[in-house]
Amino acid sequence: MMATSTFKTLFELLGGNQNLELDDFPLNHLRIDSRNVKKNDVFVAIKGHSVDGRAFIPQAISAGAVAVLVETNSKLSDLKIDYLEHDNLFVIPQISVFQLSRRLSVIANDFYHSPSKKLSVIGVTGTNGKTTVTQLIAQCTTLLNDKTAILGTIGNGIYNQLEPAVNTTASAIDVQSLLSDFVKEQVKVVAMEVSSHGLVMNRVKGLNCAATVFTNLSRDHLDYHKTMSKYAKAKWSLFSPDEKERLVETSGKSIINYDDKYGKRWIEKLSHVTAVSCQPKSLCRLKALNRPYVGVSMIEYNDKGAKIHMESSWGNAIINSRLLGEFNVSNLLISIATLLTLNYPFFAVVNMACFLKPICGRMEVLHEKNSPTVIVDYAHTPDALQKALQASRIHCQGTLWVIFGCGGDRDTGKRPLMAEIAEQFADKIVLTNDNPRTEDEIKIIHDIQQGLHSTDNIQIIPDRVQAITQTLSQAKINDVILIAGKGHEDYQIIGKTKYHYSDQEIVKQLLGAENRS
Ligand SMILES: CC(=O)N[C@H]1[C@@H](OP(=O)(O)OP(=O)(O)OC[C@H]2O[C@@H](n3ccc(=O)[nH]c3=O)[C@H](O)[C@@H]2O)O[C@H](CO)[C@@H](O)[C@@H]1O[C@H](C)C(=O)N[C@@H](C)C(=O)N[C@H](CCC(=O)O)C(=O)O
Ligand SMILES: Nc1ncnc2c1ncn2[C@@H]1O[C@H](COP(=O)(O)OP(=O)(O)OP(=O)(O)O)[C@@H](O)[C@H]1O
Ligand SMILES: N[C@H](CCC[C@H](N)C(=O)O)C(=O)O
Ligand SMILES: [Mg+2]
């Protein structure tokens, strides 16, 4: 394997004295987790939310780390070098770095030779729609023959060859290391989800974005951000024209949803911005903004998706979209607007838009003859659940069922709100488990129930397989069953254990069995 850098270069990029006499040797990768360290890697030891990474330095050295960066709270110790024991000799240099976790993304960017500057990175943020928009952009640029990679919830890697990811936005080191792999693989475009956690935890500082994109902001993650205004501030740090406030380097091109109340405000604060709306009633105001825009004069919904009459600063077109729901019209227009802002040719983009396919686990329709229609969707916030139910209603001639739960160890405040939405927009509700994680499943369901006004039409079936099985056996052919919350996930986390589990697999088995019987 080709080394990425050397020890002296690393010391210098940290700000160390170039004239210091130091042994120099090759370094392969920076590693934040001792369990991933290999020969000639540097272990980066930081204090985390649950454990102190500094406790794993011996394991990292045994696994092959040849140098260590360690977090220090003392400014005076910044860049101090200690030598740690290995094979009875004190040979492993450990550099103390002041505020290491905060600086990590910039350090990793320098270590990996600024890969984002050699790529066209599109950073997408928002409560809902990040995965959809990044996937739509990647589908389109791939169809237009630009090699494209994705970083996000469904995985990281070249489009169509994703490796599963732990986080929506990977660690500061992994982001830069993955981007450097993409440079080697001659990728041109990277569509990247930027989560609010990723922004606040400094996972993307130092990133160079060709464009930054905002889908929407609604309630989620208040366990972490505490208030909506802090949550909004985290998202704004991807766009702010004030360099002290903004967390990434950008060429200043942003694409923002005008239909969102935060988006509307932000558009007014930005000069290099493309405004997007999927509301025909907003078209006039959109045109009057004096900024590039993508809007609609009319949308006709149909069984397969929607016929969108698009108007934009680049030209007008009719797009026959194969995606379900109004929110997906918004996602599609935001994706189109991003590509047009990045100077992709108008006709190529609007022609390709008709071929874009639904995303795995997002309004994914599973249907067999003589059975109710099942829709698997990743709605796990109140706003997403409302949008997914409204979209499902269009395709429902009978009763609209919703099966959902809420993830454990996550925002508890959204639980009763999701119940209220379910009561308002569905006919029958089945409450079940999502990923309970370390919380008691009955307590989670109890929290959800607090938002219900009536006990009519509610069933509680904690086991998710049972919930789906029993609902399918009760539903009629004309009914629609929305199974929300887990989308593409092929696991269920109970306690700290991850079990294999997939909504799609269960539904396919049940529909197949019904059809055979
Ligand atoms: C609370 C939180 O966000 N934690 C994130 C954080 O972990 P941490 O630094 O606190 O880790 P820790 O477990 O305390 O360990 C401390 C250090 O010891 C190291 N370690 C630990 C064990 C060991 O054997 N060896 C070892 O070296 C760890 O690698 C780490 O460097 O940094 C890690 C690397 O970036 C993340 O993987 C991890 O995400 C956890 C798994 C998580 O669940 N995060 C969620 C809340 C999250 O970030 N979600 C957003 C999506 C939100 C959205 O939907 O918009 C996301 O971007 O994924
Ligand atoms: N533009 C939108 N507005 C509101 N809801 C949406 C929108 N796009 C998608 N959704 C809903 O949110 C769910 C998740 O969509 P998606 O995976 O694209 O979002 P995300 O932002 O990547 O989510 P996460 O933060 O979990 O990664 C969808 O299954 C759908 O129910
Ligand atoms: N990115 C979101 C996904 C939630 C998905 C849902 N299935 C859950 O486990 O709560 C989170 O980590 O909060
Ligand atoms: Mg996502």
UniProtKB/TrEMBL annotation:
Extract the GO molecular function terms from the UniProt entry.
Answer: ATP binding; magnesium ion binding; UDP-N-acetylmuramoylalanyl-D-glutamate-2,6-diaminopimelate ligase activity
Keyword list, A-Z: ATP-binding, Cell cycle, Cell division, Cell shape, Cell wall biogenesis/degradation, Cytoplasm, Ligase, Magnesium, Nucleotide-binding, Peptidoglycan synthesis
Q: What class of enzyme is it?
A: ligase
Query: What sequence ranges are listed for the domain Mur ligase N-terminal catalytic?
Result: 29-112
What Gene3D superfamilies does the record tag this protein with?
A: Mur ligase, C-terminal domain, Mur-like, catalytic domain, MurE/MurF, N-terminal domain
How would you describe the post-translational modification of this protein? Carboxylation is probably crucial for Mg(2+) binding and, consequently, for the gamma-phosphate positioning of ATP.
Functional note: Catalyzes the addition of meso-diaminopimelic acid to the nucleotide precursor UDP-N-acetylmuramoyl-L-alanyl-D-glutamate (UMAG) in the biosynthesis of bacterial cell-wall peptidoglycan.
Q: What is this protein called?
A: UDP-N-acetylmuramoyl-L-alanyl-D-glutamate--2,6-diaminopimelate ligase
Q: Its encoding gene is what?
A: murE
